[in-house]
Each structure stands twice: as structure tokens, then as C-alpha cells.
DNA sequence: ACCGATGGTTCAAATAATGAACCGACGGCT
DNA sequence: AGCCGTCGGTTCATTATTTGAACCATCGGT
């Protein structure tokens, strides 16, 4: 990776729980020399990707991203396309839904819609990065990803977020195969306890999977009927997105009848 | 400037009117060698700051900015702070208002609110970069900026966007002085014909001017009374922002009475 | 079949990035 | 007060990366 990549990776140190980071911390957390960090941060700062907040001189994400995001949304009206689809899905199932994208080798939450029907909901935050192996979205995307990404993801340590998290790469590989066959991914309590989620892949124009639409509900609420409904809604929503996104939804003719069987 | 800076500058080639650019164009527009461009774009792409759209393989702003923007908004709720202030300003004056920020040496439109009262409005787009010398926002910011930025901005060519645009650096310098004294900047038809705008500076916690709040109206509609109202509203709104932003609004005690006089 | 454009690649030469050591300043401690 | 650790930031010789002219393969139009 080049210098630019290293600089950009420093941006990943800023998270919701750690929105501001000092120079020394940046060096420690990233493992990069402090002088180098300083130079890189200065460069990011010059463009406005980060800014320094007085008086501690800690860094945080800068205002330039606002302009870029506005420009992105203007060129690719992602959110505006995604929102109505999500709205329909939540309306139909009564459960919360969200869309996450594969960006920079990570699964990132792009947009979500809460169901209003129930008091208990699955709460997610914007700008969150999801683990591949412990979420239905991650699994759905990984199942349709190239072998390179699969190997890389399954090669690194897979933390168990709950007792239900599957952490064995071999067993996950088998699940990915199943996911490809059935067209959707399922995760029960693997990310957070008592969360049952179903995710279906969204494909770009070239047929590569770049996102997933997921529906999540409290596990205790998921009856077989609701589960069927969630699966159908996820597949439908994902295909909607694929279409609006300019891709061609996969043939599910052979699958859907079986599911309905 | 280092490599990272050059890479980030390539992002500026993407605008609303030119949302997608091919590799050769990038090289031409930026003046950077094509091979270098390719490497830099590849690096930006790896992080998701840009993406390639098939089948032309043109580049465009990537999805990573969405996550960053969400994170930014979570850490610094800029827009959510700005919106109510803008709403109040437009409510009070009946004219459109917007806030622009100084980021990376440019004036960028961050947020805006349209007035609903009139049919004719001043239309601006999100993610727009404003010229320093031809907008009240730009002038307000420049007037309170450091000498380095002033010199740099006034040193480069100042295009005349309308016949009313002031392009003489010396005369602009004089205006900046006046703007500092009176506390607000005014621009009549200098950016677009028939647009009269008033802007007041917003200060950060360290006393440096980092943004401006502007009110824009069709010039033909601006009576002396409306103009006074616009000035008062801009100053008030800007000071509000400065406060909520954690800064200390400048003393205007000596000024406001004079305006009301 | 040609032409000119495209996106992308190669490799020696030039340039920029790197990191250990250092600096001054600040903020608890004792 | 005085000390100690840490902070953000800087220096400069060493090193590794970036750079760019030339080069491919491919595509679309004539």
C-alpha cells in the first residue's frame, strides 16, 4: 500500500466511541511512527478530511467530508433510492431493516429504517462497520464476494461477539455455500443476543455483490410465519435495489417456489 | 505538498457538472502524469473515496464518504445546529439563507434554507464551492482570515462572474477593511445578476473565522428596510452560530446602535 | 483495416517518505 | 518548588516510494 492508503487508514481510527484522537494515540493505535503520523495528519488536515480541535489539539473528522458526501449523493442518489425500499420493507414486515455496503473491504451501514410497530427494536447506528462473520449482511455479501476477499476475511481472527457466533472458518465456508444456494443469509444471535436477522445480496451492474439488505427482529418475536415473510421481503427488497441500482437481479424462479412450498 | 495531498486534490476534479471523469481526463485536468493518476486513483479507490463505474471505467466519488460524513455529523452536529438557525433567519427575513465554511482554503456551502414566502428565490446547490471575491460569504470569511490566505486568494486571478464583480485586488483589500469594521459583507450582483446578499462571519472557539452565514435575495426586492433587516438577521444568526459552536461572538455593541440609528 | 482515443502497465531515475532522537510545554505528583 | 511523564511537534540522514516517458491491449468510429 502506498502513502496515501496509509494516510486514509488513519481515518479509521476515528469511531463513534472515539471521535477525537491525539497525535500520540494515533501513532500508538496505528503502529505508525509519530513523525509520519503527524505529517500524514497535516496533509489530511490541509484538505479538510480531519481538523484539530483546540485546546487539546486532538484530531477529528473534518468538514470536507460533508461536501464530498453531498456530491456523492448528488451523483449517486444512494440514500434517496434506498430509503423508499427500506420503508416498504419495514412497512411489510413490521421490523427494522437496513442496507449495508461493501466499501474498502468492510461492510458499512449505509442507511436504515426503524419499524414503528413494536416497542422493542433492533437499534443500529449510522456509520457503523459490521463484522463479516457475525451478521447476516456480512455473510450475504461475503458469500457472493470473490475468493480473494473470502480468503482474506476468513484468514483473520474471527471474534465471538456472542456465544452463538460461529468462528470456525471451515464451517463458515460451508454456510456461505448454503447462502448462495438459498439466496439469503440468516443470523440468529451471532452479532447481538436475541437478534434474528435475514439478509439478501444486492448486485451492481456488473453482477458483483456490493451491498446487502437486511431485516432484523428480536429473536423471540420471530415465528416461522414472520421468518418466511422476512425472507421474502429481504429478497424482494434486495432485488428492487439491484434493479434501481442498474443491476440484474439473480434468477430466483427455482428458489422462491421452494420457499413457499 | 506530499503525495497524499496530490491524491486528495484529484477529488476536486469531480463536480456537480462533471460527476464522472475518466483516467485520461483526470491526467489532463490535473496536469499530473497519467501513470501517477492511475496509481493515486487506485489508492483512493481502495479506501472507497472513489469508485469506478462500468463499463466506461470512469471514476466518481465513492461510498466511503457517506460513512465519514455520518461520523462527522455524529461528532460535530454541524448541520443539525445550523438548520434551526437558518430556519429562524429565513423565517424572520422571508429570504433564503445559507451557511458556508472555510475548508481546505475554499469556501464551501454547507447548508441552506429556502424562503417559502416568495416565488422567486435564490437557488444554490449543496456541495458548491464559492468564489471568495464575488460572494458576500467569501468576502466575510476573507476579511477575517489570516494575511496568508488573503494574500494567496487575492494573488490568483479573480474572474468577473458578472459585470458587477469587483476584480481589483487593491479595491477588494479596502472592502475587506470596511467589512471588518461594519461586521458584515455585502454583495450586489457580483456572483449572479440580480442577487443581493449579506453575510456575517462565524467564529470558532479560538476566535478564527471559519464560516459565514449569508442571506440572499433578488436585488430588485431589496428595499432599504429589508436590507436593514437582512443585516440584523445575518449578524444575529452568525453570532448564534458562533455561540452554539463554542466560540465567543465579537463585540458589536458599538455597531448595532449605529445601524439602527 | 485503420486511426485515434481509451484504461492500464513497465522500470530506471528522481524524489519523497520514514523514524530515532530531540525539543519545549504542559500537568500532575511528591 | 522541582521532578517526571506525556503531550504535540520538529529535525535530518537513511531509505523506500513515487514519478513519468514509453509502451500495451482494447475499443469505437471512419
Distance between the termini of chain A: 50 Å
Query: What's the overall average pLDDT of chain A, rounded?
Result: 87
Strand content of chain A: 15-25%
Query: How much helical structure, as a percent, in the residues of chain A?
Result: 40-55%
CATH superfamily annotation of the largest domain in chain A: GAF domain
Low-confidence stretches of chain A: 254-261
* Strand order of the biggest β-sheet of chain A: 5-4-3-8-7-6
Question: Can you describe this structure?
Answer:
By secondary structure, chain A is of the alpha+beta class. In chain A, the strands form two sheets. In chain A, strands 5-4-3-8-7-6 form a six-stranded antiparallel β-sheet. Chain A contains ten helices and eight strands. Chain A folds into two domains: 3-66, Winged helix-like DNA-binding domain superfamily/Winged helix DNA-binding domain (Arc Repressor Mutant, subunit A, Orthogonal Bundle); 77-260, GAF domain (Beta-Lactamase, 2-Layer Sandwich), CATH 3.30.450. Helices cover 44% and strands 19% of the residues of chain A. Chain A has helices at 3-10, 23-30, 34-47, 64-75, 78-93, 136-143, 147-155, 169-182, 224-244, 256-260, and strands at residues 50-53, 58-61, 96-103, 106-113, 129-130, 185-188, 195-203, 209-218. The interface between A and B is large, with 55 and 55 residues. Chain A binds a DNA duplex (30 and 30 nucleotides) through residues 2-3, 22-24, 32-36, 38-40, 56-57.
Secondary structure layout:
The structure is a homodimer of 261-residue chains.
Chain A: H1 3-10, H2 23-30, H3 34-47, E1 50-53, E2 58-61, H4 64-75, H5 78-93, E3 96-103, E4 106-113, E5 129-130, H6 136-143, H7 147-155, H8 169-182, E6 185-188, E7 195-203, E8 209-218, H9 224-244, H10 256-260
Antiparallel strand pairs in A: 1-2, 3-4, 3-8, 4-5, 6-7, 7-8
Helix pairs in contact in A: 1-3, 2-3, 5-9, 6-8
The first copy, chain A, binds a DNA duplex (30 and 30 nucleotides) through helix 3.
Amino acid at each position: 500500500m502506498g502513502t496515501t492508503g496509509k494516510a486514509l487508514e488513519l481515518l479509521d481510527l476515528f469511531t463513534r466511541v472515539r471521535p477525537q484522537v491525539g497525535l500520540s494515540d494515533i501513532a500508538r493505535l496505528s503502529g505508525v511512527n509519530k513523525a509520519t503520523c503527524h505529517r500524514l495528519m497535516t496533509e489530511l488536515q490541509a484538505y479538510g478530511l480531519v481538523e484539530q480541535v483546540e485546546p487539546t489539539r486532538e484530531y477529528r473528522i473534518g468538514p470536507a467530508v460533508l461536501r464530498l458526501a453531498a456530491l456523492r449523493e448528488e451523483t449517486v442518489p444512494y440514500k434517496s433510492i434506498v430509503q423508499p425500499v427500506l420503508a416498504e420493507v419495514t412497512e411489510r414486515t413490521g421490523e427494522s431493516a437496513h442496507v449495508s455496503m461493501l466499501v474498502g473491504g468492510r461492510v458499512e451501514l449505509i442507511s436504515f429504517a426503524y419499524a414503528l410497530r413494536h416497542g422493542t427494536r433492533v437499534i443500529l447506528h449510522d456509520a457503523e462497520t459490521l463484522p463479516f462473520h457475525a451478521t447476516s449482511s456480512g455473510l450475504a455479501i461475503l458469500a457472493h464476494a470473490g475468493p480473494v476477499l473470502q480468503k482474506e476475511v476468513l484468514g483473520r481472527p474471527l471474534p465471538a461477539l456472542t456465544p452463538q457466533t460461529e468462528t470456525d472458518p471451515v464451517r463458515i465456508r460451508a454456510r456461505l455455500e448454503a447462502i448462495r444456494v438459498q439466496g439469503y443469509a440468516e443470523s440468529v444471535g451471532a452479532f447481538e443476543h436475541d437478534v434474528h436477522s435475514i439478509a439478501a445480496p444486492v448486485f451492481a451492474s456488473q453482477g458483483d455483490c456490493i451491498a446487502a439488505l437486511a431485516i432484523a427482529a428480536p429473536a423471540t418475536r420471530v415465528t416461522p410465519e414472520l421468518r418466511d415473510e422476512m425472507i421474502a421481503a429481504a429478497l424482494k427488497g434486495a432485488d428492487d435495489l439491484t434493479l434501481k441500482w442498474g443491476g440484474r437481479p439473480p434468477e430466483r424462479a427455482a428458489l422462491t417456489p421452494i420457499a413457499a412450498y
